[in-house]
UniProtKB/TrEMBL annotation:
Belongs to the FlgA family. GO terms for cellular component: periplasmic space. Residues 130-192 form the SAF domain. It holds the Pfam family ChapFlgA_N. It comes from the Bacteria. One of its GO terms (biological process) is bacterial-type flagellum assembly. It comes from SAR86 cluster bacterium. Involved in the assembly process of the P-ring formation. It may associate with FlgF on the rod constituting a structure essential for the P-ring assembly or may act as a modulator protein for the P-ring assembly. The gene is flgA. Signal peptide: none annotated. This is Flagella basal body P-ring formation protein FlgA. The lineage of its organism: Bacteria, Pseudomonadati, Pseudomonadota, Gammaproteobacteria, SAR86 cluster. InterPro entries: Flagellar_FlgA, FlgA_N, SAF, SAF_FlgA. It is found in: Periplasm. Keywords: Cell projection, Cilium, Flagellum, Periplasm, Signal.
């Protein structure tokens, strides 16, 4: 007798590879959509390095005397791109770390004093042109300077001579301490105010005595400029007194 056995088990069907692949990509797409919906809060909290450089440049330009510097431009140095400074919840502050003193380089501090404080020091380079007084011809030691001896040229800020002068009127009627060649810059170390009274020179001594004005002849014992107090010997009495220079031939004394 042939017996046929019946069973409830179903023959397993083969897995559809396309169905698995589709489910994988659908899941990945869903994950990407979720991530895209998350706000990028980290990027918003980072302070822009470009904005830091910009306010450092503005601060540097504000320190310049623009009446002396022409075509001034400030350029902040590059900052480490790895810096992740939290965005300040209040306006950034800037400050100088020293006196500029006509140098082309300075350091500007940028500071956040808000909830997440930080301080960054930014190097800044200044480029500008500055008026400088030069000799227009060769001059000897002791020469008395006048307008014909001087000319003004523009010099880059980073090439300024130490002690430079920017206006010829600053040294008019000054005398040279040492000789200078044509085209040499006039500096503070090269000039001095002219002595209008010389040591050994005879001068008139003006004195007020009991309401009367008395004039005497004296001899200057020291070089001096207008307004200086110098020792003067009275040639009649031989007495030495302190007198104030009034002009190139007269001194005054209170007796």
């Amino acid at each position: 007798m042939n017996v046929t056995l019946l069973t409830d088990k179903k023959t397993p069907t083969a897995m559809n590879p396309f169905s698995v692949t589709s489910n994988y990509y659908l899941g990945l797409l869903g994950l990407l959509l979720c991530l895209c919906g998350i706000p990028n809060s980290y990027a918003e909290e980072v302070e822009s390095l470009d904005s830091i450089r910009l306010i450092a440049e503005d601060h540097a330009l504000a320190q310049i005397d623009h009446s002396q510097f022409e075509d001034a431009v400030a350029t902040a140095g590059s900052l480490d791109t790895r810096l992740q400074l939290k965005k300040c919840n209040i306006p950034l502050e800037t400050f100088s770390t020293g006196t500029m003193n006509n140098t082309s380089r300075m350091t500007v501090g940028v500071r956040c004093s808000g909830l997440n404080p930080w301080t960054l020091y930014v190097p800044v380079t200044i480029s500008a042109l500055v008026n400088v007084v030069f000799t227009s011809r060769a001059l000897t030691r002791g020469a008395l300077l006048d307008a014909e001896d001087l000319e003004v040229q523009q010099v880059p800020l980073n090439k300024l001579p130490i002690g430079y002068l920017s206006d010829p009127s600053q040294v008019t009627n000054f005398e040279l301490i040492r000789p200078l060649n044509v085209g040499a810059p006039i500096t503070l170390s090269a000039v001095r105010p002219r002595n209008i009274v010389r040591q050994g020179q005879e001068v008139i001594i003006k004195a007020q005595i009991a309401g009367l004005q008395v004039r005497m002849t004296g001899q200057a014992l020291k070089n001096g400029q207008s307004g200086d107090l110098i020792p003067v010997r009275n040639l009649r009495s031989g007495r030495t007194i302190e007198a104030t220079i009034l002009n190139k031939s007269t001194v005054s004394v209170n007796l």
